[in-house]
Design a protein that fits this description.
about 400 residues, alpha/beta, five-stranded mixed beta sheet, 15 helices
Amino acid sequence: MNTEKPVPDDALADLHRDTLAVRAAVERSQYGENSEALYLTSGYVQPSAEAAARRFAGDEEGFTYGRYGNPTVASLEQRLAALEGAEACMSTASGMSAILLMCMGLLKAGDHVICSHSMFGSTIKLIGTDLAKFGVESSFVSQTDVNAWKSAIKPSTRLLFAETPTNPLTDVCDIRALADVAHNAGALLCVDNCFATPALQRPIALGSDIVMHSGTKYLDGQGRVMAGALCASQALVIKSFLPIMKSAGMTLAPFNAWVVLKGLETLDIRMQAQSARAMALAQWLQAHPAVARVHYPGLTSHPQHELAMAQQSGCGGAVLSFEVKAADADQGRQRAFHVLDAMQMLSLSTNLGDTKTLVAHPASTSHGRLTEVQRQLAGVSQGLIRVAVGLEHITDIQTDLDRGLSSI
């Protein structure tokens, strides 16, 4: 991380988000490049032995080693922090490594974390199982029940971690309410903003202390690279996250940082266009005779529709899920597989955030490592299909899904 100046700095403070997505970055080199440079280097030549000593000690600003910081990576961190309205940002090699970095920086044996049952399957596995081996306790509660979060608070609670909307059911939590719960208990709130992105939702403005991103998804936008990030105060990033990064090295590669940096330039227009297509697809699916239920915050039938419209700038996002009609779990799985295997254009892929529409069966992929009880608590049925809507024409998306749906 480049710690030369807080983000956003005075020169960027009055700019709109659309402008920040294009302009926020480290200063140009002596060559005056207009597109941000890609710095592929693992080490940096120091001006003197004394300067090197000061920089490695943290007493002087400057890049020292690739695991500690890189100008291209710093540009991404400045830009993403500016978009989220955060003071600083720490980027990582993936979204899951960002979560691990956060937990390692904030928690110790005996500390307690509260999450929802509806979080991403790998997040549940990491916090509920892997961190438990090191003495970190966890409780999983209903995503939408604020009282359940309050009831789960312990004297040892240090972190509340929410994902909104959730993957894959698009459940929405009240960020302001959870921030109050966390702060009243002396804990921090982190919000996974992967689905909405800062183009639609800014959790820090709603009281969150930390925003987590999988840059692999919409921040890149074309399914090219892995990346993760934590946006927070300068103090949290410098004191809690940077020391762990230096020791453990969940470092984001400069090339990956450059790809995501350029992806951020089109984030807003992509999210608006893909969300509009998602809304149209959700309405079409809701009327389809083979579909039992559609999960999408933009629909008035969604249980948290009003909250989502208030928190997400009046937009439902680009991800939805739907359940095929079935008599039982076995038939649900069979019919879901039939729909997926009948597709001729759409991509059967567990990623999301691509300009290409990606369709997946969560129960056997992203949530496949969970127990059946955990899947049921998360509401992930065998007949559930998740769609991350891309930029294809909406009629073509509908036609491809209808190949399987109309023949059930």
